[in-house]
Design brief:
Helix content is 28%, strand content 33%. By secondary structure, it is of the alpha+beta class. Helix 2 crosses helix 3.
């Protein structure tokens, strides 16, 4: 399979438009279009970024070999984690604007790309309960419930958002295992993976526990 044939399939598998991929690669959308129609080839820095994004070796990406295993269209879950990371970084963690509430007094944050959509809806403030969910083509494919509380002052919501911005492919549901900034420390522990998991997170100010949250969830199909 030629590189120009692989590139649009891989992009679609990860739920990206040509414009969104171009933004991640810092190139023009027309450049991505030329790659996918065989009018041009990506330069090495772009190829390496594509390998990281699609979790492929450089050899696997560029090899023009009919004997190589073809890239086949993906199930919706194959693009779930990249979309979930972008959605989280664009909403609560990224100081995203709230949308109209779907329930009385709820705080709702929404994000959508093509067939993908995301909703984070929670109740409360210093004590809170909520749910995050992802849909693909209008069908729910992933969800997580969470409940947390502020235990003491001082507490910094901005520090919590800084930690959540650092969600990763290994732990896309909340923040990293450890994040520190000045007098603040964030801990997160989870068992399982994105398909079925449970965990908890804590924030310490100096040596004092000031916040805790528990969460669980997984794929729906």
């Amino acid at each position: 399979m030629k590189l120009s044939d692989k590139l649009p399939l891989l992009r679609q598998q990860h739920g990206l438009s040509q414009e969104e991929l171009a933004q991640q690669l810092n190139v023009a959308r027309q450049t991505v279009s030329k790659w996918e129609t065989g009018q041009a080839l990506p330069e090495l820095p772009s190829l390496l970024t594509l390998c990281d994004l699609y979790r492929l070796s450089l050899d696997r990406l560029v090899r023009d070999d009919d004997c190589a295993e073809p890239v086949t269209p993906a199930a919706p879950q194959d693009g779930l984690i990249p979309f979930l990371l972008r959605a989280k970084r664009a909403t609560y963690a990224g100081h995203g604007r709230e949308s109209a509430p779907c329930r009385p007094a709820s705080h709702d944050l929404r994000y959508a790309e093509g067939p993908w959509s995301y909703l984070d809806s929670y109740l409360g403030s210093s004590h809170f309960l909520g749910e995050e969910a992802v849909w693909h083509d209008g069908q729910p494919v992933w969800s997580m419930n969470y409940a947390g509380r502020v235990l003491a002052e001082p507490f910094s919501g901005d520090f919590l958002k800084e930690a959540l911005l650092r969600c990763s492919e290994a732990m896309p549901y909340r923040g990293p295992q450890l994040f520190t900034q000045g007098e603040w420390t964030y801990h997160c522990h989870a068992d399982g993976d994105v398909s079925w998991f449970a965990g908890h997170e804590e924030i310490f100010h100096l040596d004092q526990l000031v916040y805790e949250c528990r969460f669980h969830g997984g794929k729906l199909r």
